Amino acid sequence: MRLQNKVAIVTGAGSGFGEGIAKRFAEEGAKVIVADISREGGDRVVSDIVAAGGSAHFVAANVALGEDVAALLQTTLATYGKLDIVVNNAGTTHRNKPLLEITEAEFDKVFAVNVKSIFLTAQHIVPYFRTQGGGVFVNIASTAAIRPRPGLVWYNATKGAVITASKAMAAELGPDNIRVNCVNPVIGATGLVSEFMGMPDTPENRVKFLAGIPLGRFSTPSDIANAALYLASDEAAFVTGASLEVDGGRCV
User: Fold this and answer.
1) What is the C-alpha to C-alpha distance for residues 84 and 9, in angstroms, rounded to an integer?
2) Shortest CA distance to 187 belongs to which of 130, 241, 100, 251?
3) 223 Cβ neighbours under 8 A, 6+ residues apart
4) What positions carry a catalytic annotation?
5) pLDDT per residue over 15-45, tens digit each?
6) Quick one: DSSP state of residue 217?
7) What pTM does this model have?
8) Among 84, 205, 217, 227, which residue carries the largest CB count within 10 Å?
């Protein structure tokens, strides 16, 4: 098992990509903290993991709040005694629409969830990783940061910030044996798909988006989970500062 004896926090793990990552990590032997703002989703994922023979524990957390992130670390240590991996997956978007139609509240929310969360996990968890002698961050960014398109301007900007911050973190934290990498999904059939599309999620509307993906399909939780698994595992022990597109060729 590739994550045997590892403890991982996965944020936004109550659905979508985060759920896929949490379940994949548990399959590979990790003890998983399922962190999510939704207790219903988080409890369901924990139940699924435990039923499959894995180990998981739900923690309710809003990753845009410092006190919640601090509590997330403390609960992890109280539950499993250590922490090895953090997957910053929790994210949100504003609806796909012209940039001048985005409200200040929408702007603030998308930056708080997508960018401030990276700041907060670094603030609270880097000191712990330093005392432990190392650790791993896997930050879920987006192809929107690499090939931004109209309609998602401020969402694109948040994911660009995630990639830049991750690379800078990798450079600064390398001497502490702390690795930091990104996974960049293309659009996937998650709960936010209609927001990303800016229109109803219908087969006809999907065709417009699939036309830009050479492999001809959306990303799946399994696709993203497998990439995150590699970057979190010891197989990637010499990989830091990487930004891995998992996009069916979207960014080519």
Assistant:
1) 8
2) 251
3) 185, 188, 246
4) 155
5) 999 999 999 999 999 999 999 999 999 999 9
6) S
7) 0.95
8) 227
Q: Torsions phi, psi of 29, nearest 5?
A: 100, -5
Strands 31-36 and 135-140: unpaired
**158 Cβ contact partners less than 8 Å away, ≥ 6 residues apart:** 110, 111, 114, 115
Contact (CB, 8 A) for 215 and 154: no
- Three-state DSSP at 184 gives strand
Low-confidence ranges of the chain (pLDDT < 50): none
- The partner residues of 179 in beta bridges, in order of sequence, read 136
pLDDT of residue 199: 67
Q: Supply φ then ψ for residue 87, to 5 degrees.
A: -110, 110
Residue 187: name the closest of 167, 216, 229 by CA.
Answer: 216
Burial letters 83-96, b for 16+ CB under 10 A, else e: bbbbbbbbbbbbbb
CB 224 within 8 A of CB 246: yes
> Is 3.40.50.720 the CATH number for 7-191+220-237?
yes
Question: Cα(160)–Cα(179) distance, rounded to whole angstroms?
Answer: 19
Are residues 225 and 17 in contact, defined by beta-carbon separation less than 8 angstroms? Answer: yes
* Residues 1 and 18: beta-carbon distance below 8 Å: no
Can you read off the two tokens belonging to residue 128?
A: 């712990």
